[in-house]
Amino acid sequence: MSDTNAKITEEIRAKARELLSSGEIAAFLGFTSGSLPMTTRPFVAKRPGDADKLIWNSFCVMNLANYLPALLESLEPPRGPKDPPPAGPLPKVGVVATGCCSRNIVVQMQERQVDRSRLVILGVSSRGMVDRKKVMAAAEGREPLKVEEGGHTLKVSGRDYELEIDRWSAVRDNCLTCAHNNPVISDYLIGPVSNRDVKDRFAQIEAIEAMPANARWKWFTDEIASCIRCYACRNACPLCYCPTCFVDDSRPQWVGKSTEPADTALFHILRAFHCAGRCTDCGACESACPMGIKMRLFTRKLSKDAFNLFGAEAGLDPQAQPPLATYRPDDPEEFLIVEEKK
Amino acid sequence: MEDKNLQSGTNLAASPTANWEPRIVAFLCNWCSYAGADLAGVSRFQYPPNIRIIRVPCSGRVSANMILDALKAGADGVLVSGCHPGDCHYISGNLHARRRFGLLKNFLEFLGIEPGRINFSWVSASEGEQFSEVVKKVTGRVKALGPTRRLVKEIRID
Ligand code: SF4
Ligand code: SF4
Ligand code: SF4
């Protein structure tokens, strides 16, 4: 483990222990190690002793905001659907949040999914999380049994090989172009603050836009061809909290249950569209996909347009309205057909 | 052969034959464009018989789901038409819709859906002639593109 990670881990543990033992929070949401190399799991500590299981490294790819609404609700005293909320303050939750995760918490605040006064946020500047699939590719199909993080390197070792790769070369695509890796809201800041400066953050999208329409269609259909419709991408996303997702609607049935290409395409188009103007490019969807589909490029295009057309960036200001929940009288409308009165 | 497809109830996609005519699903706002279509009829402004009108309470009611569902079912084109900005019966439904449609249109084109498959317009209740012009324009665009293939769910019935 690199020094920075070790230090951050120590600080997270100490703060979680302190908050839990003082009774300020009832639960602490962070990461613990997974069962395979390069994996982590979301972890809820409820006793001060559990705090030692918390960790911090370059593989904390899931978005913890995803678990907050349910965790907060589980700590409320049980009540019927029509009972009023209990009087007095409700138990609080502590949570570790990187830049994107903190922005997703802001989106959840805008959409009334979490109550800021019940959160204690430990902000951590992200150095960019590592994409397991990129490391696997560098190992050329050999199974990595151990991956050690140095300052700027990753030491991968397996049964009969050892490999050192540059950490930055394996960082996730979304992290490479992230312009908000410092938390936008937090109660405590942990670890060094980053001053990364990203210039062409929509370069990936511009490259696709420059292709002819038929090539784009081919890119899109090829990209999603291997999708098995497991919906892991949706489940990993903190924006997807609908009690009934459109994929489960049966009347009308927006998308069929099969992996028929049109159904899969519709699933991807609509899922991405539902995230328009709300997606923080946290990459949890892409990291969760078992098939390595780069569905982040779809939401990224929508973020680019929301930014260029409406000047909106998701999750920066808790007081702001999500861009599709509001309008301006002078919004662009060149695409509309308007016939002049004769 | 068109009828056979219609009867199957799942897929309207036509095969490209010499006398192919596009089928265009038009979502028209009850308060303006639907009345505009009505006026076009009453005033005998001609327009191509390719549109299949679905009346909706407001252009703001039309979601991406509905537009894509029409394409999935084999519509060769989609038209959504609502009130001019400032005239919405619900004050701002069309202005909210304008943002949504702008993003959706860009997004579908980004993924390689032909520009011209989905169209949006403002037509008021007094614009019968303009309505017929819009339908002519949209039908022309869709005809030039030919039958829809992308996003159509192919269910074989043989
Ligand atoms: S996680 Fe991947 S395979 Fe599963 S539904 Fe999403 S894109 Fe498809
Ligand atoms: S994909 Fe859309 S409908 Fe489904 S949970 Fe996400 S936002 Fe809701
Ligand atoms: S769509 Fe993907 S990148 Fe966007 S917020 Fe959801 S999980 Fe994160």
Low-pLDDT residue spans of chain B: 1-10
Number of structural domains of chain B: 1
Strand order of the largest sheet of chain A: 2-1-3-4-8
Estimate the global geometry of chain B from the Cα principal axes: globular
Strand content of chain B: 5-15%
Overall shape of chain A: it is globular
- Shape-level CATH architecture of chain B: 3-Layer(aba) Sandwich
| Overall SS class of chain A | alpha/beta
C-alpha termini separation of chain B: 13 Å
Number of strands of chain A: 9
Largest sheet of chain A: 5 strands, mixed
Cofactors, ions and other ligands in the entry: iron/sulfur cluster
Q: Based on helices, strands and strand pairing, what is the structural class of chain B?
A: alpha/beta
Order of adjacent strands in the largest pleated sheet of chain B: 2-1-3-4
What Rg of chain B, in angstroms, do the CA atoms define? 15 Å
Strand composition percent of chain A: 5-15%
State the low-pLDDT regions of chain A, or none: none
- Mean pLDDT over the residues of chain A: 93
What does this 3D model show about the protein?
The complex is a heterodimer of chains A (342) and B (158). With 342 residues, chain A is of the alpha/beta class. Chain A folds into three domains: 3-127 and 178-190, no CATH class; 132-170, no CATH class; 203-325, no CATH class. Chain A is built from eleven helices and nine strands. In chain A, the strands form two sheets. In chain A, strands 2-1-3-4-8 form a five-stranded mixed sheet, with helices on both faces. A three-stranded antiparallel sheet of chain A has the order 5-6-7, with no helix packed on it. In chain A, α9 (261-274) crosses α11. The longest helix of chain A is centred in the N-terminal third of the chain and has 19 residues, at 3-21. The N and C termini of chain A lie far apart (73 Å). Chain B has 158 residues and is α/β, with parallel strands linked by helices. Chain B has a single domain (21-145), classed as Rossmann fold, CATH 3.40.50. Chain B has five helices and four strands; from the N terminus they run αβαβαβαβα. Chain B has helices at 2-8, 33-42, 64-72, 93-110, 128-145; strands at residues 24-29, 51-56, 77-82, 118-122. Chain B has a four-stranded parallel sheet with strand order 2-1-3-4, with helices on both faces. In chain B, α2 links the parallel β1 and β2. In chain B, α2 (33-42) crosses α5 (128-145). The longest helix of chain B has 18 residues, at 93-110. Chain B is globular. The two termini of chain B are 13 Å apart. Mean pLDDT of chain B is 88; it is low at 1-10. Classes of the chains: A alpha/beta (342), B alpha/beta (158). At the A-B interface, α6, α7, α9, α11 and β9 of A face α3, α4, β4 and α5 of B. β9 of chain A pairs parallel with β4 of chain B, so a sheet runs across the interface. Bound molecules: iron/sulfur cluster (3 copies).
